From TrEMBL:
The keyword Membrane does not apply. InterPro entries: Aminotransferase_I/II_large, HTH_trans_reg/aminotransferase, PyrdxlP-dep_Trfase, PyrdxlP-dep_Trfase_major, Tscrpt_reg_HTH_GntR, WH-like_DNA-bd_sf, WH_DNA-bd_sf. Transmembrane segments: none annotated. Pfam families: Aminotran_1_2 (PF00155), GntR (PF00392). PROSITE patterns: HTH_GNTR. PANTHER family: HTH-TYPE TRANSCRIPTIONAL REGULATORY PROTEIN GABR (PTHR46577:SF1). Keywords: Aminotransferase, DNA-binding, Pyridoxal phosphate, Transcription, Transcription regulation, Transferase. Residues 7-75 form the HTH gntR-type domain. In the C-terminal section; belongs to the class-I pyridoxal-phosphate-dependent aminotransferase family. CDD domains: AAT_like, WHTH_GntR. This is Aminotransferase class I/II-fold pyridoxal phosphate-dependent enzyme.
Amino acid sequence: MEPRITGSTAVEIAESIRELHDHGRIAAGDPLPPVRTLAERLTVNRNTVVSAYRQLVQAGIAQTHGRGGTRIVDHTRTPQEGFAADSVLRDVGTGNPDPRLIPDPSAALTAVVGRPVLYGEPVIDEALEEWARDWTSRDLPAHDLRLTVTSGAVDAVERLLAQALTRDDAVALEDPCWLAGIQTARLGGYRTIPVPVDEHGMTVEGLQEAMDAGARAVICTPRAQNPTGASLSTERAAALRDVLRAHPYALVIEDDHFSLLSQQRFHSIVPPDHRRFALVRSVSKFLGPDMCLAVVASDPTTAERLSLRLSPGTTWVSHLLQRLAAALLADPDVRAQIDAAGRHYAQRNAAFLDRLAAHGHDAPAPVAASSDGLNVWIRTPAPARDVGEQLMRRGWLARLGDDFALTDAASHHLRLTVHDLDDADADQLAADLSAAVTAAVSKVG
């Protein structure tokens, strides 16, 4: 029996749905009746129902899905990066950097402890600001940049979207997309518009369609896109800038998460005269996930609005953490370690793709664009869920491409974290993956 929605005004209809939701008679993810159907049932004008649904969206109770209608918001947690809990299988889906390649901060820690920082002082450490300004201005030389420090890239993206958008505003996201990006958009109540990713990154046609559909923000990964590992080419970045020139006030967020580790050049999609943009660079991939710190270089207006959400007395980033990051990044030995780590990830990823090719698997060519990042993105001829099940029988736990998809279509990809495997384990995984694909294809056939 469908729950009974009542009311003759927009407020009454919205309150009726809220009460049904509070009492558990409408669950997360449930669709609300089509506007015309509910209007006819309640003998009210269609605009009354539209207004009621809009109130629910603004309150964070419902979310519109275009042609998919309006649904009660589903706050179910999306999968997260990291080790799977309580698994006896060999986990090759973690997305983690190799802890052996993260610089030891012990020596730098003793040098950064200084006088206490008090309320009202500058929120950015002077040494970190100087280093970060040089780091970002080289890649965005045509722009007037302002710097902000946040508690990591996810914190930056969440606050950037919150200062620019309201619930039900549309955000263009790469598809497949990084896990935290999906969760951030969902919890913020934003409408996601998938933009396909190919071997050169975000596609031009996909971005154009997203902007035509009313996207007010775009999140793009210029290098080592997670999960695919793709990096923007010079030509692709130029074509994306051409699309964005017609939308100077759309917020463009570039999440350059792999930055110092990347083996690819940085290519920005921000046009020279764009009005709203932010380049986000976290230190978590090369200084460690527990170093919750990111630098944000943005236009003056965006920086001012962002700083209001990070004002002294509320949530500024610890100066001890900022000093530690600055000390490590200024150390030539640490920078040499980071450079070596970046080469190691690319080499190990490429070597694994070579192993797959030797087994006859149709893996991406072992080129830098496919090997950059902490993971490899493997195409599977059978549904990824079937291949993943076969891998589990052989002792491996992989990350399914379904976790990263914005659409409901079954994925035919796996994301594997293989850089920390020795040669023997990498050989075994390649052999087991090849056997798992064969078994999964036979099952489907």
